[in-house]
Design brief:
With about 140 residues, the chain is of the alpha+beta class. It has a single domain, classed as START domain (Alpha-D-Glucose-1,6-Bisphosphate, Chain A, domain 4, 2-Layer Sandwich), CATH 3.30.530. It has three helices and seven strands, in the order E-H-H-E-E-E-E-E-E-H. The protein is globular and about 40 Å long. The relative contact order is 0.26.
Length: about 140
């Protein structure tokens, strides 16, 4: 099951990427993050890890699995019998950029998890994207 939210931001892609890559700053941008603690030195790199604490959830360690610096990255975390993969993609468009956030659930219990938490996932990635938009447009 995949969830995705795309938003147009009136700011250069480089500004949005800088916010995306500044993991410890995420809790300032969105109420969906309480703490983001890099476990490996930044900048982002494949194999790099971060511990994320979100409201009403146990802390989870996310590991970067794909990286196209300045454009996109993906990372994943195990959750029970599931794997959750988060994607962050920034694309230049006329007048700014498009920021696309995604969460994909794979594995045992995927359908049940999607049924129970799908609405919350959609709400969370929308709020995260709105936070990136507000800060990028404020600073651009």
């Amino acid at each position: 099951m995949r969830y995705e939210n795309a938003i147009v931001i009136a700011a250069p892609a480089a500004v949005v990427w800088d916010l995306t890559a500044d993991l410890p700053r995420w809790p300032e941008l969105t109420p969906t993050m309480k703490r983001v603690e890099p476990l490996d030195p930044l900048p982002l790199r494949v194999g790099g890890r971060a511990r994320i604490k979100q409201p009403l959830q146990p802390a989870a360690v996310w590991t970067v699995t794909e990286l196209d610096p300045g454009r996109s990255f993906a990372w994943e975390t195990p959750r029970g019998g599931l794997t959750m993969t988060g994607t962050h993609r920034v694309e230049e468009i006329d007048g700014g950029c498009r920021n696309t956030l995604g969460i994909e659930l794979t594995g045992k219990g995927e359908q049940w998890f999607a049924f129970m938490y799908g609405a919350a996932i959609r709400w969370a990635i929308k709020r995260e994207n709105e936070g990136f938009k507000a800060e990028a447009e404020r600073t651009a």
